[in-house]
Amino acid sequence: MLNQSDTRQAEESLLRWSGSQNFNPNAEQPYYEYLNANWQSSMFSRQSNFATFQAFWDSVLHDGVFEMPVGAFPEFGWGGDVNAAAAKITKPGTGELEIAFFETVNVGGGQYADNPWLQEMPDPITRCVWGNYLQIPIAFDGNRRFDGVGKFKGLNSKEAYKEADKVELTIGGNKQVVTCVRQFGQKTDAVSMALGYGRKVSGAAGRNIGVNVYPWLSIDANGNTQYFAAVDNVSEKVGSDEYASVQYHHTMGVTGKAEGYEGKVNVDEIALMTLGKGFQGSLVERSIINRTNLSDLGGYVKEMNEKRGEFEELNQKTLYPYDQYVAEKYSQGHHWGLHIDLNSCTGCGACQVACIAENNVPVVGKFEVYRHHEMTWLRIDRYFYGDYENPNVVYQPMMCQHCDNAPCENVCPVSATNHSSEGLNQMAYNRCIGTRYCANNCPYKVRRFNWMDYTTADLFPVNEHGPEPFVPYDGEVPFYADNLTRMVLNPDVTVRVRGVMEKCSFCVQRIQEGKLTAKQEGRALRDGDVKSACQTACPTGAIVFGDTNDENSEIAKRYKNKLNYIVLEEVNTRPSVQYTTRVTNRDEALLS
Amino acid sequence: MSAAVSRIREPLIFGNKNYHQITEDLIGPTEKAPNRMWIIAFTLSVMTLGYGIFALCWTFYFGIGTWNANRTIGWAYDITNFVWWIGIGHAGTLISAILLLFRQRWRTGVNRAAEAMTIFAVMCAGLFPATHTGRPWFDFFMFPYPNTRGPLWVNFNSPLLWDLFAISTYFTVSLLFWYTGLVPDLASVRDRAKGVRKKLYAFFSMGWTGKAKHWQRHEYLSLILAGISTPLVLSVHTIVSFDFATSVIPGWHTTIFPPYFVAGAIFSGFAMVQTLMIITRKCFGLEGYITTNHIESMNKVILVTGTMVGSAYLIELFVAWYSGYIYEQFAFYNRVLGPYYWAYIGMMACNLLSPQVYWSKKIRRSVWWTFFISIFVNIGMWFERFVIIATTLARDYLPSSWSYYWPSWVEIAIYLGTFGLFFTLYLVFARVAPVVAAAEVKAILKQYGDQYLGPDAKPQPHHHHSDETEDVESDGHHH
Questions:
Q1: Counted domains in chain B
Q2: Which of A373, A412, A443 lies closest to B155 in CB terms?
Q3: Which of A456, B93, B338, B377, by CA, is between 20 and 30 Å from B227?
Q4: Contact B161/A413, CB-based, under 8 Å?
């Protein structure tokens, strides 16, 4: 066996712990034998094709499936009492404010709190990092503005100005100061907060980050932890906090009732007309998120492709011989591209962390994220749409679009960012002087500037931290200057110095490695030889990387899909990243 | 015939000056010990400059991250201040070059100080693009020089590169123009000086003796430089506006920018000239040289350019609506109603509304009104640049990346530091060189208003000859 000593299969552990009677822990392959015996006793008798169990077993393993004769199942009946079960669910009394506690995808129950990569991965819903926030409900006042509801009225009204409010939250007599964040879809009589923060005992990165909510959790008579509680009191605002959120504006047209309008209308656009409060993603007919419901699919696709045709017609009106570039350059050799299926993306953030790990993207800490100095090359934008009280969410992974007509390239005075013959928008770090013009001119805002020496790559010892340390650290040297921490760095990727611009490179080191391997093996590069880090990490296969000039590649096939679209196509940037329209299948009657 | 016109034309120089008096009034201040006001102003300026230098060192030490610019708003205070200063640096060359070509002789009262102001303002402006880069020690990559890296050339497509050429050309030509005008006056200072001062001024006046040939060359050179600078007045801010106009960002990408920026630059430049002139004429007692007529003429320019800029603001709003392009429409919603609405209101109130009071002749000729309106205009023009740069970047295409910007202490300190630099240089200039072009003023003393017979006319026009002979030795100025 390949087992390392003192290890065992996960299933074996479960069987041991559950004290299964049919399980023999001393067998040579305990779980295999247990499984085998189970099939022999419960399944073998239900078929008649095979005489021996071994033949049956081999056949099932070969086919990967066992089809039972129809009718062999016993009728199942439901003997439970729904009402009795529902009555057992304890809940706080009516009229009270309830708080729900939940685990986030990044730090879990707190076990991953010491991992700075995960601390700096934005929560998929709140898009906040380095801490847990009290999620309070937000509503449209029917007139002009979005505001908190009930006792949260007026709270966090300056979120878009980088300022969140602190309140004192009392639960079970236990009072703590927490920072609020306004959350669409939060019920008006409920708030929520994440577990796993505020650890006292942890590595430096996880210590005292956020608020420990475990003291607020109670245990019921059966010994089960209750992940909810009745809130005794929420105080008035007691201060404000520099909260670290990477996305303040987050809707693509939420709807609701507004004064002077019939039925539900786009309240974003109504809120737009308020002085100083232009709140959300107003004027939402931007070609950023394409989505439709299954029932409207046919019409939508037609309309979308007509619109794309108009964009293309406008884009053809150019002084530059773009078709000639395509014929002479972009259609020759490799042309790398990425495709993202918005239907598959769950917003989990694995791609973002994979990108950080692959490309030596620095962690910058809470204060720097608060100042919007985060360095992530790949981010997952989250937009709400639909009724603001019960919104839907759509996630959009966004990284450098590697435009063939890139606005960033022509504005760089020193040509530090330029186009490769394989369609890559590439950065020459050594050449970059850091004017940041490229980032300003990027419609997708995916460029990241090394505002300070986050990676401690510079020679000067002083640069190892700013006026304040970026990431909390224990030892003598700052977080990234520690030799053990530096072991995470990928040797194939340059560590960037202070003052240079960087961004997604389409994992160019992997492209080069793939080409080199193919060359050494004396063959052409095959589709799938090169996979980007985000692609390999994506659990749902939403991301596909490949050569769009290769007719038979997976990406070329995906590009032909009629649901495909390009973000901000009318800007004529000619991106190498395409997205699939998000199609939902919901009952319209339930939606309205 | 022309005599009849002259009789009703007011003199350009008030106070019945003669040549010697002009010399005493204008060259005199360079010879006296500084007064207390000057010492206080200079101390404050140097301290402010020191604070700015400290903040710049802080930036170099820790990085641009000590500024609050961010991933969305890559330019904010830095480029706002850059464009603001470069705009201020527009009046000097306009006054010296365009008004020279148009034979607007009234310019002689203000051109010297205005040109000095231009040069100092361009120096303040140049500081920002030079230091806002992430790695300023590699700024020399911007210069197209033969090198061993390929050779690797600069990107001639980039408006930032055009900027570099435009500003360095403008600075060089303005400096030459200014210095050319200074030479006869430096010679006047030399002729009256003793010891080391005499040697220094002898060096800087380049052997000027006031020969006819010197004057002829001087006039030719001035005309040539005026011819070169005139297109520069229009081109520099046009090219600065290309930084924005050639981008793809809604609110930046507009064809109206070049004329709108040039008008705005002249507008703010004249306002700054007014602010400084009013202080200077008061401090040095130069009311006879920098007259209410000058103030009124410049106020007319401010009224015209302010109204042009205001029209541009309104046209931008119209075009945003008319374009039917939602990104453009949102950019203007955001300007007017978004989180920076106060900057938009400030811009509109200061730039479009405040100069409209100049339709009244009484206000145009009022020193106090002029002083306050000139301050308003400069505040308004700063807001305009902030609105265009920071507000536009804060909310562009993808709502997910929208952000908000507020300056850090470092950015504010650097901005203050440029004021320190500007006033330190100006105060030094006012001590070492005549703040009004003495030679040129003498040239217009007899040509304009010599035979004027209206109120405040000279009592005895036939005394001129004796006045002139007194003065010959001090400036070598023959007519």
A1: 1
A2: A412
A3: B377
A4: yes
